[in-house]
Specification:
29% of the residues lie in helices and 27% in strands. By secondary structure, the chain is of the alpha/beta class. It has a 7-stranded mixed sheet with strand order 10-9-8-11-12-13-14, sandwiched between helices. Strands 1-4-5-6-7 form a 5-stranded parallel sheet, with helices on both faces. The protein has a two-stranded antiparallel ribbon with strand order 2-3. Helix 7 links the parallel strand 12 and strand 13. Helix 1 crosses helix 8. The protein starts with 7 loop residues before the first strand and ends in an 11-residue tail after the last helix.
């Protein structure tokens, strides 16, 4: 009897339900049924409400704070493994804990490596994610990792703005590679912000490397947390003579009063994806959905097709 490709089923962790519904709709299948039982002490237990035996399962969930979001992904992977799913694909649009990708001081953990190990041990057979904080995190896994780039839809958006004298900028040295990749594709100049930190989320000094005078600046980065670096960079670009400053950033972590601070900032706009749902809406923040990208890549994974053409960077 010839081998028959297993049926694909898509399920959502509760924190990414809206995005998962968009992905399932773009993929062309209904979202699978999951029930979360919650106990009085805060413990919870997910369960699949349909058979997944011998199926290719996609579990969609970003692992932003709180840590319950990561735990829910791990429990759903474990449940799928124990329910005899044939393939378990962890679709993690925003891979949390990725900023802990190395020992940058004594006696600290490498959180990204720990999360990779937990996902594997739980039973994931593949991870699909987007714009990791560091590309090298892919090497923490012993299973396939499909690392997607938001540039596949951010670059067309930047092109649609029709900006002359364009400069692509990075708000820090760590994003220089990303800025150069965008600039190469868009045939634009590059500027980099050099910054020094007092501690996490607190910048003490910043300077611009590159000419932004008389230019329209687009800052690119993988995530925005408190927004302080981004705002300081935009103010500095304008002080250096930039005509306008906007930002395209993949993951809108937006902690604390970041949205309010961005609204008061001189930036024209902040463009993000829906990898993390916005807690607060803002006229200055525009959301581009990553659902079609994930749906198309998931289709290709299911049919064993190449996904290399889905990458611009």
């Amino acid at each position: 009897m010839p081998f028959q490709e297993p049926e694909a089923k898509i399920f959502a962790c509760s924190q990414s339900l809206d995005l998962a519904e968009k992905i399932a709709d773009s993929y062309g299948v209904p979202l699978g049924k999951v029930e979360i039982q919650r106990f009085a002490d805060g413990e919870f237990r997910p369960s699949f409400k349909e058979s997944i035996r011998g199926k290719r399962v996609f579990i969609i969930g970003s692992t932003f704070a709180p840590s319950d979001n990561l735990m829910e992904m791990l429990l759903m992977i474990d449940a799928a493994k124990r329910a005899s799913a044939l393939y378990i694909n962890a679709v993690i649009p925003y891979f949390g804990w990725a900023r802990q990708d190395r020992k940058d001081e004594p006696r600290v953990p490498i959180g990204a490596k720990l999360v990779a190990t937990m996902l594997e041990q739980a039973g994931a057979s593949r991870v699909v994610t987007m714009d990791l904080h560091a590309d090298a995190i892919q090497g923490f896994f012993e299973i396939p990792v499909d690392h997607l780039y938001s540039s596949t839809f951010f670059i067309p958006y930047i092109e649609s703005l029709g900006l002359d004298n364009l400069v692509i900028a990075s708000p820090d040295m760590g994003g220089a590679k990303r800025a150069h990749a965008y600039a190469k594709y868009l045939k634009s100049d590059v500027a980099i912000c050099y910054k020094q930190r007092v501690r996490a989320n607190e910048v003490s000094y910043m300077e611009v490397i590159g000419d932004v005078k008389g230019k329209h600046v687009v800052l690119v980065d993988d995530l925005v947390d408190t927004g302080r670096t981004l705002i300081k960079a935009s103010e500095l670009m304008l002080e250096k003579g930039a005509l306008s400053v906007r930002a395209v950033i993949t993951h809108p972590v937006l902690s604390g009063n970041a949205v309010e601070e961005i609204e008061k900032s001189p930036m024209e706009e902040l463009v993000v994806t829906d990898s993390i749902p916005l807690k607060t809406l803002s006229n200055k923040i525009k959301v581009l959905t990553c659902a079609p990208l994930f749906a198309e890549v998931m289709h290709n994974i299911h049919s064993h097709k190449s996904i290399s053409k889905k990458f611009i960077m």
